[in-house]
Specification:
Cyclophilin, 9 strands
């Protein structure tokens, strides 16, 4: 009964949100609000990327990415939840391998921590190219959590083995400037409701 009532409330909220918004409205969620946008169905364009985008703010500049919401729906929603709560704000890039990846998402900064919620592998056909964002994991395919990496180059040996859930669309020139220990100042989410 509670689950049914919760579903009705979410549906009403979604209908209210969409019906009251102008078609060109942009909603910014800075990870500090109490609204839950993770249950929204992210709209995608012809390339399969969401119209919603996230901005990773660093001391070197901003990195903007979009989600592969249809190819990695569970992962995309979980990352949205983490962004919404401000989970990533202040975390470091704990793993940086030049010409390969930069990795973040571990609150301990050791590479062994996470949010405590495992995300199952959502293997897809998206290739690892410069700016690809994927969930880091251990040898267990279903051990992904909050840690993610951004590819600095094409890495076909990773294709299909990790959940690719995003692609950098702005700020590729920022990626090689990131050093181990650099912090994420914040990650902001923009839900672009433009059709």
């Amino acid at each position: 009964m509670k689950t049914h009532l919760y579903s009705v409330v979410i549906i009403l909220f979604s209908l209210t949100f969409y019906s009251c918004s102008d078609s060109n409205t942009r909603v910014n969620v800075s990870g500090k609000g109490s609204e839950n946008f993770s249950n929204l169905d992210l709209k995608t364009d012809n390339s399969g990327l969401s119209t919603a985008f996230a901005t990773i703010k660093t001391i070197h500049g901003d990195i903007v990415f979009r989600f592969y919401a249809k190819k990695a729906p569970v992962t995309s929603k979980r990352i949205l939840q983490l962004i919404q709560t401000g989970f990533y704000n202040g975390l470091t890039f704990h793993r940086v391998i030049p010409n390969f990846i930069v990795q973040t998402g571990d609150p301990t900064g050791t590479g062994t921590g996470g949010s405590g919620v495992k995300i199952p592998l959502e293997s897809n056909d998206i290739q690892h190219i410069k700016g690809t964002i994927a969930i880091a994991r251990s040898l267990d395919a279903n051990s992904g959590d909050s840690q993610f990496y951004i590819s600095l180059t094409t890495s076909p040996h990773l294709d299909g083995k990790y959940t690719v859930f995003g692609q950098v669309i702005e700020g590729l020139e920022i990626l090689p400037k990131i050093s181990k220990g650099d912090k994420i100042l914040s990650i902001d989410l923009d839900l672009n409701t433009k059709n």
